[in-house]
Amino acid sequence: MVTHLARSLKKNKSRLSINEQTLFLEKLAQLLEQDYSILDALQILKWHRNWSHTIDQLINELKNGRKFDQILQELQFDQQIVSFIYFALQHGNLIAAIQRSVLFVKQQLQLFGKFKQAIRYPIVLLVSFLVVLFFIDLYVYPAFLQLYSTQSQPSLMLFVSMRTVSSFFSILYMSMIVCVITGIVLTVMKHKITIQHKVAVINFIPLTAKLAKKYCSLTFAIHLSSLLKTDLSFKNCLTLIINHNHDTLLSYYCTQLLADLNQGVRLTQAIRNRNYFDDQLIFIFDNQTNHLIMKRDLETYSTLLLEQAQSFILKIIKVIQPTVLIIIGISVVLIYLSILLPMLQLIQTI
Question: What InterPro entries does the record point to (predicted)?
Fold first, then answer.
């Protein structure tokens, strides 16, 4: 057990960040394009000090006959990168797969970076406001309530404001407790939760069902378009996707599709019956003619879907900041009014 722990710690220590992974693979693809062999390219990249340990492991495992995607998996490279390279090894176009995986991951990192940058200030502002609101509820409101208790008719607005803030914190505390309990249960039960249970939970919530459908459609289109270059049958393509993506949503969907095809159901009918994918993707299969045209259509679809996702996230980013500022502004005004209006009424009675 100690040996396993030491090995795990060593792996985590040597693991490249996602940005380092994309940069490393980008440089590797450039050297491969210049007709370097993969071992020679890796030897050159060892000049980068941060990559030397990872590259040593890569070289040793490649010399031992291990597959490139399996080594990257063990080195904890991003799963999307590993998937691209796995499917590339089926048709031999490793350089194009590395370039495409790097581009795909970079687009996601850019979107995630913009999203983090957009929500950083609202989150800090919201947390600061909640801290102030907590102390107002704990100290300020009780003090003012005691002050106004001498009035024959205490302020209704103060009572409503106190009750609203108290109810808000009660809901917040309950939500935190539920999240903690849910997290503990999921941690304990994660090995017992099957993919069928995950699918049921995802499909139970309309928003997650829609997002899962879009994401599965995108990854399915990308990987299938890559595999169609090999002139494999659709069944063989599904089998490769299933074998690589164990216990994932895409693997489960492909397993169901393959079962339908083995029972004699037509491809277009099986995809439409299962309703796992986006309508635009289903339309491509409805109008299929041959592998080359389908490959072209799938690549076009995945590009358009990525652009739609980028546009959607940018719209959300533009809405987040003003929405949070408006909510906090209105809350501050109402809190001040709940305190100041009774005070003005009290002054008038003196």
Answer: GspF/PilC, T2SS_GspF_dom, T2SS_GspF_sf
| Total residues belonging to the chain | 350
Q: Is the dihedral of CA 102, 107, 108, 112 positive or negative?
A: positive
What is the reported pTM? 0.69
- Residue of 147, 145, 125, 149 whose CA lies nearest to 137: 145
Q: Where are the alpha helices (DSSP H) in the chain?
A: 2-14, 18-33, 38-45, 52-63, 68-74, 79-91, 94-135, 141-148, 156-189, 195-204, 206-227, 234-244, 249-262, 267-274, 279-286, 291-349
166: how many CB neighbours lie within 10 A of its CB?
Answer: 12
Cα separation, 58 vs 265, whole angstroms: 44
Q: Which residue has the tokens 């040593």?
A: 56
Q: pLDDT tens-digit profile of 248-277?
A: 788 888 888 888 888 888 878 888 877 788
Are the beta carbons of 337 and 157 closer than 8 angstroms?
yes
- Give the C-alpha separation, 109 to 124, whole Å: 22
Distance CA 275, CA 76 (A): 33
30 CA to centre of own chain: 29
d(CA 242, CA 250): 8
Residue 344 tokens read as 């003005």
* Whole-angstrom distance, CA of residue 68 vs CA of residue 226: 17
Among 210, 229, 221, CA closest to 250: 221
* CB-based contact 280:272 (threshold 8 Å): no
Which H, E and C letters describe 113-173, residue by residue? HHHHHHHHHHHHHHHHHHHHHHHHHHHHHHHHHHHHCCCCCCCHHHHHHHHHHHHHHHHHH
